[in-house]
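Reagents: none. Just compute today. Helix-turn-helix domain-containing protein.
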Amino acid sequence: MSGHALPISTYLARSPHAQMLGHVGLGFGCSATLWRNRDARISYDDPQGHTLSFYTRGGQGTRRLDRRGEAAHGWPGAVCLMPHGHASNWEITESFEFIHLHLPDDELRRSFAQICDRDSRLMQLADLTYVEAPELAAPFQALHGATRRADRLAAEAAMHELLGRIFTGGRYVTPDRRVLTGGLAPRRLRLVLDHVEANLAEPIQLRELAALAGLSEFHFQRSFRASCGVSPHRWITARRIRLAVRLIAARQPLAQVALACGFDSQSHLTRAFKAAMGVTPGRYRAEILAGAGPEQG
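Predicted 3D structure written out:
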């Protein structure tokens, strides 16, 4: 096995009987993938990124070998959370189907900071195997259906709903009660984030954000990354791209979308959007229109 950390999808792709039944990119390295697998032993050694798993068919022949005191096997509706860097070993003796939601560590922390308005360092995803989680079933099933249809917009909506429930569900994020050092004070961070949201259509300079935080630009960048999981530039880009997604879904012209989201030109939007989402804004719009069917009226 390579010494480089790999996503779980790469390990699965090497499994002799694994079949990918559907896949959709969700932006910033996130993705949802439908799998079928059977008759295998798989070891995930130091996996890159977090994986949220939901069994959709079978699972009684699937066991986690390195854990004791948990359910002996899976079942349709079983949920597994596999945190970034946590090794695990699995045995599969019967065919089953499941969906994996893959989330890079920095993106999950950014989402936690945004959704929960808390320091990203407090996010510790629990390592859970075969749990009954009825509150997660609906968004997982929505994500499954959207991935099977290759419906990006619906899949993104299901992902955000699922993350909201994960972060607020109590048992999915383990409490981290350590005393944090560095980072931004909550009041200062809120000033910065509110300023970003109010000015997405305008140029946002690092120095103005640092001034709001009362720090030098160097110390602000380091403190922001500690609190939010990503750099200020990455945070701003993510917020602009998410706004662009909403405006594209509302069928606004791409030139207007670019201006509304703070990009210098449509070509600037295209470059940033493709880097984040894996497709150009035009292709994304075409996929949305194809999924929505003929426009009414």
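Residues 133 and 147 are 20 Å apart (CA to CA).
Action item: order primers for follow-up constructs.
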